[in-house]
Structures are given as structure tokens and as C-alpha cells.
Amino acid sequence: MTLTSAAPSSAPRILVVRNDKLGDFMLAWPALACLKAARPAPHVSVLVPAYTAPMARLCPWIDEVVLDPGDGAGRDAQRDLLARLKVGRFDALLTLFSTPRIGWLCWRAGIPLRLAPATKWAQVFYNRRVTQRRSRSEKPEYRYNLELAEALLNALDITLPPRPVPPYWPLPAVTRERERQRLGEALALEGACPWVFLHAGSGGSAVNLSTDQYATLARRIDARLGGAGKARPAWLLTAGPGEESAADALHARLVEAGLEAHRPPPSPGLDAFAMSLSAADLFIAGSTGPLHIAGCLNVVTAGFYPARRSATPLRWQTCNAEERRLAFCPPAGAGERDMTSIDLEAAAGQIAARLTPLTTRETTP
């Protein structure tokens, strides 16, 4: 839930900007947790688009959500945003994704300390800059964000707190139990078998496996568990807006192959969909927003990534615990978009091994 308690008068007011895609925003949660762990705890506001605002309102490290109308909004909307930023009386700005419009508005708003990565010409609007070279993909995105948060605390002369650890979206156990009960009743699911959520959509932002590949992967995982006398998993096939037909097609393929596959009921919003992922025993997807929601929940994840340097498994690593994530990508020498070269048999073996301890119901010979 969103924190609502007022910050003490000595605590700084910080505005954090991450106003692009869902996955990028979820990878900002470790940085937000770092800021909120400082003492005195700052008042943390975020500037986000309407699309990710429901997730921002669920984030326990955020006190206030400010909506960004976007680059395409008219002059009046930009003027209203500027007025809102001035009213916020922010002591510091942390821009995790810098654009000229945001830099200019925050400079105009008179925010005295403005920190951002030293990239693009928009950096001229910032008086503190950190060189990171993110395009080299030398570390995970969420760690780049953490380093920026720590740089801001240093600039504010605040002692750095210990780095936060997963889960970055901590939910009470009763929430997971409630979601499992809700889905179990809606889909007549067996609670003793592993629940594997598979999100085949890409949101248009990431190269992903094809429907055929996901069907093959699911069949091989299912066969490995069934062949070992373990409980075969229940497959829950999720989809975002505009991805329903692909999920329906995959569902038909899996049912035809004899797998226990289900399409969860539509969620009333992104926040409800995100909460439902807490019911998963394992989440499979490409490098998309839902994968990173699952990572923040510390759900076991299996992500499929392209070979492109700027989109490597290291750069876009989920932020769950190391032992709770798997990542797969094309081998060295493959084309950066050649997802067909991923060894699905090896991937199925690793995923099945993660599921084996969860197969509490054994089949009888």
C-alpha cells in the first residue's frame, strides 16, 4: 500500500522521475526503497504516466504520485505540470530517465538539486550528473538506478542506508493466500500442484518467443515433471491489452496437448493484475513489464531475452533474489533477434528443476 504518513519537517522532499514503460518503472523500486530507508526518511514523490500510476500507488516506498501528461500533451497541460511541480516545493530531483522536456520543467520549477545520468543533451538542465554508460550493459538496470539514488543521498549529505534486499514489493502472506483462493475458485485449480504463469505477450517492446516456442516449452516442462512421477503444473496464461488472442491460441494448443491450461478471468486494472501475480509459483515471460512485476514480488522467474547488447539478460535482470531467477537468450554468434536459436530443451530442464520441490502431489504409477 502507499505510505501516507507525513514526513518530518527536517526530511527532504524528493521527486523521482521514471515516466516511460512499466518494466522500467518496476526496476526503479529498489532505488525507491533505498531512498525511503534513509534517515530522516524523505518524502518521496514520483512523476509517472497514467499507465503506470496504479503501480506507483501500490508501491510502499512512494508517498505521492504526480501524473505526467507526456511529451505529446499540449501547452496548457505542460503549464499545469509546471505549476504542480512548483507547488511541490521539492528539495531534490532524481531523474532516472532524462528527457529535455522534464529537465526543462524541473529547472523552471526551481528545484535546487537536480541529479540525472550524464547522457544526452538534456543533462544541461541538471546540476549533478552521474556517468554510467548504461548502453554497455555492464550491470543490471536496477543497480544503475540504485547508484543514482545513493548519489542523490550523498549530495543531500544523508548517510547511506544498507542496500535493500528482495522483495522490493513486500506483500503480507495473507495477500498471496487470498489471490490463490480467488483464482483457485474461479478456475477450479488444484492447490497442491505448481501454478506456472506464462505471459506470452511482449507489449510491443521486446523480442519474445513465438507462440509455437512457448507451446513447445510448456509441453517439455510438463513432460519432465510427469515423467518423473511428479505433479504436473497448472498453466495460467496471462495477457495484456491487445494480447488476448495470442493467449487464447496458446491456451488451445496446450489443452489440445493434454496440459492443464487456464485463462485467468480479466483483471479490472493493472493493479489487480499485478496483485494476482503473487499467486504464481513461477512466472515465465519475455523481458516485459509483467516479468519485472513478478521480480519485485520475489516470485521465481524465467525470462527470455534477445541477444541485443542493450537488452541482455544482465542489463534487464529481474530484481528478485539471485536463486529465484532464470534467464535464457540466444547463444553467442546468433542474430540479436534470433529467438529460435534458444535451446528450449535445456530451458525446460532448468525450469522443471525449479518446480520439482513444489510438486507436493505425486502421481501414482
From TrEMBL:
Family matches, as CDD domains: GT9_LPS_heptosyltransferase (cd03789)
Keyword Transferase part of the UniProt annotation: yes
InterPro entries named in the record: Glyco_trans_9 (IPR002201), LPS_LOS_Heptosyltrfase (IPR051199)
Lineage of source species: Bacteria, Pseudomonadati, Pseudomonadota, Gammaproteobacteria, Oceanospirillales
Keywords: Glycosyltransferase, Transferase
GO molecular function: ADP-heptose-lipopolysaccharide heptosyltransferase activity
GO biological process, alphabetically ordered: lipopolysaccharide core region biosynthetic process
Protein name according to UniProt: ADP-heptose:LPS heptosyltransferase
Gene Ontology cellular-component annotations: cytosol
Superkingdom of the source species: Bacteria
